Please model this.
Amino acid sequence: MKTYLPILAAVFCLVACESNPKNQTITVNYPDTRKGDTVDTYFGTEVKDPYRWLEDDRSAETEAWVNEQNSVTFGYLDNIPFREDLKNRLEKLWNYEKLSTPFKEGPYTYFYKNDGLQNQSVIYRQKEGEEPAVFLDPNTFSEDGTTSLAGLSFTKDGNMVAYSISEGGSDWRKVIVMNAENREIVEDTLVDIKFSGVAWKGNEGFYYSSYDKPEGSELSAMTDQHKVYFHKLGNEQSEDKLIFGGTMQEKHRYISAGVTEDENYLILYPRISTSGNKMLIRDLRDRNGLLVPVLDHTDSDTYVLDNQGSTLYLVTNLDAPNQKIVKVDAANPGPENWVDVIPETENVLSPSTGGGYIFAEYMVDAISKVFQYDFEGNLIREVQLPGIGSASGFRGKTEEKELYFNYSNYYTPNSSYKFDVASGEYEQYWKPEIDYNPDDYKSTQVFYSSKDGTKVPMIITHKKGLELNGKNPAILYGYGGFNVSRTPGFSIVNAVWMEQGGIYAVPNIRGGGEYGKKWHEAGIKTKKQNVFDDFIAAAEYLIENNYTSSEYLAIRGGSNGGLLVGATMTQRPDLMKVALPAVGVLDMLRYHTFTAGAGWAYDYGTAEDSEEMFNYLKGYSPVHNVKEGTAYPATLITTGDHDDRVVPAHSFKFAAELQSKQSGANPTLIRIETNAGHGAGTPVSKTIEQYADIFGFTLYNMGFQELPNQAIIKEFKD
Model:
């Protein structure tokens, strides 16, 4: 689609301000959305799909619809009186230097750095005793910052590097190979690579994964049959050798490849869905070696953590829902030969290795605890973290004496630390200088009861001294799927929200991984309603305890979290004032027919599985549960016109249904970012604009005519 710039004098809408006893209200006239006559039949039940035509993202009619909707939306947003103040404050707070935790490759230490408002972070490197120098600057990839760095992989000796780029937020990647020492590109760019890392085999070449590129629209075509290839440096990509996949007898939607640090073993992880994998291993020292099955089923998530000689160390949730570490000899790697090294505990394990040790990070009610072990499973020490929050890192090569880790929580900006593996002592490596005082804020963890009595944790963060009077603007954020855990982490945008007196609450609802595989599976398929019930109960807790009220509550989530918002607002439209579904999975009867959507069936099931599954999905699918004449909350749907993971048709259809059936004065808008995908790699400039719009829309529809904390705005203006 062409890039669209909204104009004030839009021919498809009229935006005007009129008086209202409570507020100045912006009136919206929506574009007409044509209704088609498409009908699908599932198990004898006819289901109308009047907006099927919006699935064709390349049609002129869809493009015109996108332009019309953006004209309405930006016409509305342009009239919010404090929108520009929010954008300016976001820019000011965002404008501080940010550094990643360092990592070592060859003779250099590398790190990512952003001076403040750069659209993409820059990779620097330095040798001992020398000044850092730019190694790779993704801001040079495109003029508008929409081409981003999507991956970086060095050879073991650090002499070569392969980096992948994403254009316009797409999941399709290009891979560029460079001599790391002189930074010269050594061969033609590899193209059409998707859901893949790069696993080097010496300096000879590397393994990668991809699908056959679909013909026609990349958004409406289903990606299937993932394959692993080996690319030998100097060869044309067309000569790359197929290693695994592509047979009709065995269809795998995702296959990832890895090589052990000593480069002795290739490991393949075939998957048919987002949960559960098979595993195969090949001894790379044997030129005629075959791929040997370690697991021939997808009943667990299992992967190689490390190896010492022929001993493999695996992380698995096979018969261990919270995960454990086992070891096995590569010559006989089947599960019957596994020996526990770090057994399963009551808390979920997420380990890493570095410096010759295993670092076991456990989630204890979504909070990090880290323990250091040797490879025999002997506890060396608990690492006393800087506070209560989330820690990540503790990884590196076997010979390294120092590792780095990162720490943050919902109100503390990310800081990095240098850790001595022998003594266990650490010192702060980098701390941000930011126009924000974390001491002014606090987080409280509460446990509330869901509809069926299940206890669910939630962390509520806000300014200290906040009066619990039911009038505080609050954002309830959730995800609840795919075994993904929501742990405390700092966000500049959330800092701006809380700075304005806002509350930010995150419940650890079922479907996620905070309590292991059992917690995940309590929120899938015909148990998906548990996820929505948990989220609804979280909102009710905030209201009952006077943190906020329905008039000041917004719900927000993206991707699977967009489904969460869509289902919650259609089931309980009275519960919140504002709904913010982002890049959501909203058509549950057809999600599996687009791009990689069929791979999500482990969590959702599909409408073709059975009549029971069809009825269950239809019962909560947001697109199919918008009721005529219902007063839905003020809604701002956000998506990208090039999202090839959760295709924008989900959001397009939902917006059309809401605009057609909404009752009352609450606006239903859709903000469609052009030349944008699912969110990864979004330029900083676009992110700031998006959140100024999201927060502006939210506060305005809660009744605010100026920002709640206008003093801060005046301060930074002065």
